[in-house]
Amino acid sequence: MKIAICSKGNTLDAEVDPRFGRCKYFLIVDTESRQVEVVDNSENLNRAGGAGIQSAELISSSGAEALLTGHCGPNAFTTLNAAGLRVFTGIEGSASEAIDQFNRGDLKAMSAPDVEGHW
Fold first, then answer.
1. CB 102, CB 88: distance < 8 Å
2. CA–centroid distance for 61 within its chain
3. What is the pTM of this model?
4. CATH class for the region spanning 2-104
């Protein structure tokens, strides 16, 4: 299964970014092989508005089935949900640790955004 992780760096050792729309990188990871595709999100990092929606569209086109992030606002959540992605928030630590938590079933998919827009 492919998952997307919001990351402050471009490796699995990097810390999970608490921001979704304005995270520095998305790591698209195969949860079994741990093969990583790095997606640079710098275009949305400095976007004045709509970063969450643009980032959600980027993730939905990556083939990921789930998103692991610190937080997710309402517009991004709606876009991700419409694309069929499960959203997991409150993720902390390294991307590698987040994958382990996901694989163990320790994470619970969200049914609503956990922050207001422009967090």
1. yes
2. 13
3. 0.92
4. alpha beta
